[in-house]
Amino acid sequence: MIQITFVFLLISFSRAVFVEYRYESPKSCEHLTVPTATAYKSLTVDWMLDCVRQCSHDSSCLSATFDGSQTCFLFSDDQRNCSEPKYNHVFFVVEFAPVAMMLGSDGTSTVTAPTCLNNGTLDPVSATCQCYKGYIGDNCHRIMMDCTEGFYSGHYNNHYNGLYLIKPTAASEPFQVQCNMKDFGGGTFFMMNSQYAVNPSLTRNLDWNKYKDGFGEILVNSANWIGVEKIHSITSSRPHHLFVEAMDNIKWERRWRKYEHFKVEDESTNYRMTYSGSFPWTQTEASADPGWTKAIASTPLGDSMIGLNGSAFSTFDRDNDLDAARNCAREYQGGWWYNACADCNPNGQIKTSGNASSINELYWETDTINSHVVHIQMMLIAN
Ligand SMILES: [Ca+2]
């Protein structure tokens, strides 16, 4: 028996329709009949495509055939899967996916559309998959390694900030982060400490394991710290720049600073942190970067990480700072890359009144000598 299978794609209406035509040799087709007894419905239609439409609009229909004389038979099972092929009719198999129509033409070519995995949907115009929640690729088959890859993958154009899965190559498992997919070039956020957060009083005077694994809820506009192990896996998978955004309660501007080639090594080094340089990041710089479309302050954030390049991470129970006489993390009441100790305390407590600055306060020294920092967040963007 000769059997040739042509597969066309009909992208149709509410569901994808895959058309399979089975041609068999004339001898095996001598006694062909349509299995009308097993059809749950028969309809009069004008032509083959109307039969496809009927099936695609009927949630009970899994396959259908058109007998060539205006009768369409609908089946609740896949009638192509007969062990002994008996029919020379065109059977349509309907699969669930929201799409619109495209028809293969000459019967000799095969039109294929991607199978969209992980809840991806087929775009009706381009016949490409739209992926969600961090999946990318032609079939939404893999998880992006960081938010920047997702941002430039084409799957998340103009998506809003939200939660996505990432799988840095250095990470053993995927994990959830907040990504900027809208206006900040695909940033992977790794911390927020802000009076504007939904949980501004989140306790941050925590031990090594908490800072290693993360704390706070990974939600949009939620105070959190994703964990220095995750920061290590992101920055060691490929080069990233660190962007720091801070606001104080005098200027009330969201000002930014960029630290190039920010990298955190593994736990055996106590998560040693390095960067290659610190630069202003103002509207001038942002305007030259097509990923940044949101207006930001024209005044840059100052550099308050001077002296911290090369520091190890410390918490109150793991003193890795460079001041033998002090425990910086215990004094500052938050984990950070301290030297002896630091001109910033991103994981300090938010204070909005009184004289700045008590040592355990959230601060960014260069800009807030006479004010209080009320908001800070940090994100990573791949080179
Ligand atoms: Ca010390």
TrEMBL record:
Superkingdom classification of source: Eukaryota
Domain named Apple: residues: 29-98
Q: Where is the EGF-like domain?
A: 106-141
Per UniProt, the keywords (alphabetical) are: Disulfide bond, EGF-like domain, Signal
Q: Which residues form the Fibrinogen C-terminal domain?
A: 138-383
UniProt-listed Pfam families: Fibrinogen_C (PF00147), PAN_1 (PF00024)
Q: Does the keyword Metal-binding apply?
A: no
Q: Which PROSITE patterns match?
A: EGF_1, EGF_2, EGF_3, FIBRINOGEN_C_2, PAN
**Residues of the signal sequence?**
1-16
Q: List the disulfide bonds.
A: 131-140
Q: Mention any one GO cellular component term assigned to this protein in its UniProt record.
A: extracellular space
Entry protein name: Fibrinogen C-terminal domain-containing protein
Q: Which organism is it from?
A: Patella caerulea
